[in-house]
Amino acid sequence: MTSRRLNISSGAPYEPIYGYSRAVRYGDQIHVSGTCAPKGHENSDSYTQMMAAFDIIGRALREAGSSFEDVVRTVVYVTDIADFEEIARAHGEVFKDIRPASTTVQVTSFLRPWQRIEIETYAIAGAHKAEA
Question: How many CB atoms lie within 10 A of CB 40?
Fold first, then answer.
């Protein structure tokens, strides 16, 4: 019998130190940890950081046997709610036709002071194939 749990790593340096996985698939549920833009985005705007985070999230979902089409919820954390239009544009480009439940929350900071956004993502494998 195989395990129903699959831990997915992105190779981030804090994964083994903090003791977390980029994503965990358990059965058909996939939980993607809060994801920020990686180094190299120190001067990027919120839109660009969102798209960089979505790139990492997309890789984790694919490794879990899923895709953005299966996402049922996102939580977006921002350091400046005034960036909401940029954030909404990026989120809308990825989820225009999928339309998961979503929440946006302003926070004071992230691990690296230049990071502007962080995204948590929850998916159910096969959700896009389910009939209403």
Answer: 8
